[in-house]
Please model this.
Amino acid sequence: MNIGINIGYLVAAALFIFGLKGLSHPRTAVRGNLLGATGMLLAVVLTLLDRQIISFEWILVGLVIGAGFGVILAVKVQMTQMPQLVALFNGFGGGASALVAGAALIEAALLTTAPSTQMTVSTAASGLIGAVTFWGSLIAFGKLQGIISSKPAKIPAHQLLNGILLLASLGLGALIVLDPSATWVYWILVAVASALGVLMVMPIGGADMPVVISLLNSFSGLAAAATGFVLLNNVLIISGSLVGASGLILTNLMCKAMNRSLGNVLFGGVGGTIAAADDVYAGKIKSTSPDEVAMLLEGARRVVIVPGYGMAVAQAQYAVRDLTNLLESRGTEVEFGIHPVAGRMPGHMNVLLAEANIPYDKLKTMEEINPTFEQTDVVIVLGANDTVNPAAREADSGPLAGMPILDVDKARTVVVIKRSLSPGFAGVPNPLFAADNTLMLFGDGKQMVTEIIAALKEA
Amino acid sequence: MDPFVAALTIFVLAVFVGFEVITKVPPTLHTPLMSGSNAISGITLVGALLAAGAKETTLTTILGVVAVVFATINVVGGFLVTHRMLRMFRRKD
Model:
């Protein structure tokens, strides 16, 4: 073992930790990310100095192709498409881990008579987690990109099927441990785990994506850590476990923000009584116009904007920024209320609003914004539905029951910009739309906000 | 100490460090956190380079090179897009 290289790996691992620490504040985050990238560069350069490496031409080809694709994807992606890009990158990381573990197993079978049990167990774990991550992430990418329907796919007996596939993977893993020389078993394990990854994500619908992406993020880290155990390489173990922990924290936050368990998200179980839309809405919907909203805003001292996935779909973030600037120039206080699961990944809305140059200190979390709604004159709900549904407060409201929501109904007036009365992902009618203090502005998010701005300027 | 036990010790301690560091990341940075940590999980590139360069068999070289491509996309794309996002976050002037 080369001590110099291992000390260098330790420095790289420390740089990753400092990098993640930098992300604790937007001010230090750019530097943090650069520290992480420096750590990675250091680790790669040190590895190339390793005497195990005797041929460089193919490595160079791989690095150039990978870097080329990586740069193109990172530069071309629109901020609204960030969830699918993260899913894609996730998948590549997991896939790489599974391939490296497979190559290590083949090498071990050639060189040594009996690889250690620890090594074979880790290899099986890496193959299982890596393949699930790769295919699960590709399916998530396809759903978010619209290549595959984002609706939950109905797979008959899919819990049973998933269970069988998981047991089969574990059984194949045991075979590898018992007879490591039969390396073909590893690839069958990878194939079974791939099927598991596909079937795990197929039944998951759009609004549950934040949970799934966080979970796959965690898996990609755990796959790297497992590969670290295969190679007994500490920098892989440390980095992998950091990412595994990070993904688990986010998964847990997302589940809490929907008041659902991880099992419930993955295996469905949506139930309860859902009120009929006609009973909730009949005769109580008040439709409004951009002019009327402009008049309301003119007299408002405090406005809160609540964005949801619909804002991303309508690409309305720039119009929202213009409205914010206009209101502020008239002395109105404007803040944003952001639900943890708004959008398709954790923090999705924050990135979109940051892109439109809205300062991050205006973006308030659910805990921060909820006590302020009673002192708010106008709330504009833009493309959000389930996250502002007061039915969640009632115990028997079906899939939304107990989910913490933004209490927008406590504001003086609520303006909901929405194309129609169609329900959100949970399928529950929203009593907010029929509330006495709610006005519905039917139409495309971007167009409606633009028309409100025009009306405000005329007034 | 047995190398596996040493590795396991490092793993468990790093998970604790991870929990401590990540819980301090504010929700507004959760998307960059995901893409940035994602790029870090591309560290598996180190293993991929070893597999691709060791020239044990043609098969391991192929597996290694494909893994290098995958992991490099993850690393380069991940850090770059995180940088792009983080530069957009700004305070009130």
